Amino acid sequence: MTKVLHITPERCTGCLRCELACSQMQTGGSFQPAKSVIRVAPLEAHTSYAPYTCFQCAEAWCMTACPVDAISIAPTGAKVVSWERCTGCKLCTIACPYGTMFLDLDAHKAFKCNLCGGDPACARACPVQAIEWLEGETQDWLGAFAAERAQRDLASVGAA
Amino acid sequence: MRHVVVGAGTAGFNAITTLLSIDPAADVTLVSAEVPYARMVLPYYLSSEIEQANVYTISPERLAGLGVKLELGRQVVGLDRSAKRLLLDGSAGVEYDDLLIATGSSSVRPPVPGIDGPGVYDHWTLADTEALRGAIRPGAEVAIVGAGFIAFTIVNPLLHAGCRLTLIEREPHVLPRMLNAGAAELLEAWLSDHGVRIHTGAALERVEDAGGKKRLVLGEAPDSRLPTPDSGVEADVVIVATGIKPNLDWLRDSGLDVGQGLLVDERLRTSDSAIYAAGDVAEITDLVTGQRAVMAIETAAMEQGRIVGAAMAGRPLFYPGGMLMNVIEAAGLQAASFGDWAGAGASEGFAAGGHYRRYVWAGDRLTGAVIVGPARQLAGENDMGMLKGLVQSRKPLGPWKQLLVERPFEVKKAFLAAGTVSSLLPQTLLGLGSGV
Fold first, then answer.
1. Cβ <8 Å between B379 and A100
2. How would DSSP label each residue in A56-105?
3. Chain B closest CA to A89's CA: distance in Å?
């Protein structure tokens, strides 16, 4: 059984500690939410929140799209980008249909969730267990929650 | 079973790796004029951001180690289908039980006087990149004829090399096969602000020598909006990027059915069921529009290669069709388009600072999208990939369509709330799980 980032959006308070912890792992020490690969989506005019990150999907659209074989699968199941090989061509950023592949414009390299080698910092940092590192299958953690918490947005465009 | 793959580009390479991942003992021969390399990364080699070693997808030694028989540096000259034999220059040829034709495409220059003289370059093959690396230097005036996707892949390398750049495009706007006029105009304005000169609606009439330089004499294209410079454009280096054509000449007498490319069925078989075609030579179905098209893009070639590789390994699969997608970034502005991006009946959104969205709809499904914005800001959002996901998943958006129409920058909310992730998660190209 593999472990996945199990997300329970109802618990998220929008504290953004996951983004800080993630950016620290991604950058090797600095707190830069722009370098985080988990993003907290605000809903209901910033009264509801939900963390969103790579699903480590079965197809691995990023990996198959990479023209230089820079993305591989780690023992955790994470799809991991090798900056030794990545050229920054951006193909993975349009191939990933989840929007969870990012481009570091300072390094000109792609980056994504690598599950921190098996001990994800976002799950450790979350004070309310909205993000947990549990055995199970990945799934659409946010769909029903977002649909419920965006009803006001629908009403405001006359579509509720 | 003797499998033969012609062409070591994206389609051929992916076919071989997929075939061997399923059947490591497969009998495979690779025939290719070139060694395997990734065209997508040539711009980064042009700018010396990567070494030549990082251009190659796999070494001949590694291929040989995998048991692949190699016929590299060889030209295919014909096909004898009755004998199931591929004809090569200077040898008896190669016999096959099944064959993948993945011979790609070649750049073509417009037939105008002076176009083949010295100082005029292409940017299509590794050899082209090598030649161009020797020609560009800081301060050089560089003119690119044809402002399409290929031209835009080398805008940044040339600017970083300190070249002064002029783009010449026959169509009314740049990137005519990737962006609508509104999006392209944002990009043109942005590039002008960054010192790039752009002549649209300008047809190249001839190339002249002008005291050690080249002079490009331009005429007005029929649909031009702008006057063309009377004196022409002078440049130290001319790069022609006006288009490509499938490499099919060698199949003239093969009897295979050809349209714009080799016609293939839903399993990528040509009119001869022992012969597959993939990549830039194949005329496939557009996943979104259902129209036949030669889709000369990297991701489509990769997918077709994998489908054929699986089929050669005895796992015939249905190819749902290719989806158009392209992304460029030039001088800090990024643009991407997906699916039926040019379709009619679109909703649009503009925001200050160079942000633009165009959404094409079929009922409540997003069938095409254009996204433009400063790369730094787009890099912070998840929008670009989500637009691809919405088009790819064909997810009916129900009421969430109205949210995207009214608030085109709230992609994430509509994407999540519509349950797009649930539709996407079970999707795999080969149905074999990851790693294949």
1. no
2. --SS-HHHHH-TT--EEE-TTS-EEE-TTT-----HHHHH-TTS--EEET
3. 7
Closest-approach residue (CA) in chain A for B54? A85
What is the gyration radius of the CA atoms in chain A, in angstroms?
Answer: 16
Residue B12 near residue B32, CB atoms below 8 Å: yes
pLDDT tens per residue across all 160 residues of chain A: 699 999 999 999 999 999 999 999 999 999 999 999 999 999 988 889 999 999 999 999 999 999 999 999 999 999 999 999 999 999 999 999 999 999 999 999 999 999 999 999 999 999 999 999 999 999 999 999 999 999 999 999 998 7
* B120-132 burial code (b ≥16 CB/10 A, e <16): bbbbbbbebbeeb
Closest residue to B417, CB basis, from A85, A98, A150: A150
Closest by CA to A51, choosing from A79, A80, A14, A25, is A14
What are residue B122's DSSP bridge partners? B240
Cα distances from B91 to residues B75, B77, B85, B211, in angstroms, run 10, 11, 12, 47
Report phi then psi at B205, rounded to 5.
-100, -40
- Provide, as residue numbers in chain A, all residues whose Cβ is less than 8 Å from the Cβ of B154: none
